[in-house]
Amino acid sequence: MDLPKEKRWFPLESNPTLLNNYISSLGFSNERYGFADLYSTDEWALNMIQPPVLALVVHFPMSSKILERRHEMHKEVETEIAMEFAILHALFNTPKCIQSSEIEPTSWAEMFLNECPADTLPVDKASILENDNTIECFHDAAAKDPSNQTNRPEIDDKIGIHFATFACVNDKLCDLDGRLDGPICHGSTSIANFLKDACGVVQKWMDADKNEMRFTMLALAPSA
């Protein structure tokens, strides 16, 4: 009997226009909230983002120095699907009032939330997601979307880049990464201080390998 082929996902670009279109296709309204580029961890850049910031998606290089700084735990998820997990972490760790107002009824996002309540084990959520043909189609369409600013890579290309998401969950600064067994808690925070606190952690990653410049950040915040 032939073994099932490993499912492969094309990497998604760190591009707010692309990702706002993508979350809309999943059923998260981007009329009031959407992703915006955050250009630096410095105060001037933070002041350009309209509060409240609901999540921060970080696109970072997987150098040995940065992984060591993050206390890498080597989980099972492929790097190519990392953006998928980062986006879903951002959407599904927003406050319940945001989810109820911004997630459209009968959409893929609502169905996934119903299928994977909060007490579902991360490995089970990952399995459900990786075997979901609907989101695979949405993902592939986004990877081919004309709003991409770079050429679509080959499926076997090693990109050496990973995504993680920061969210404020129960007044804790949580670092959510599909390659890890669970969230990393970086201490207390608040919605008001969340972006500054998250950028403080990201700056430590940057300081760990000053030769690396391949960082980008996307804030999920009120649309302009």
Automatic annotation (TrEMBL):
Catalyzed reactions per annotation: Thiol-dependent hydrolysis of ester, thioester, amide, peptide and isopeptide bonds formed by the C-terminal Gly of ubiquitin (a 76-residue protein attached to proteins as an intracellular targeting signal)
Sequence similarity: Belongs to the peptidase C12 family.
Keywords: Hydrolase, Protease, Thiol protease, Ubl conjugation pathway
A GO MF label: cysteine-type deubiquitinase activity
Pfam families per record: Peptidase_C12
Any single GO BP term: ubiquitin-dependent protein catabolic process
Biological classification of the source: Eukaryota, Sar, Stramenopiles, Ochrophyta, Bacillariophyta
Enzyme class: hydrolase
Keyword Protease attributed: yes
Ranges where the UCH catalytic domain occurs: 8-222
Name of the protein in question: Ubiquitin carboxyl-terminal hydrolase
InterPro entries: Papain-like_cys_pep_sf (IPR038765), Peptidase_C12_UCH (IPR001578), Peptidase_C12_UCH_sf (IPR036959)
Superkingdom as given in the UniProt entry: Eukaryota
Annotated EC: 3.4.19.12
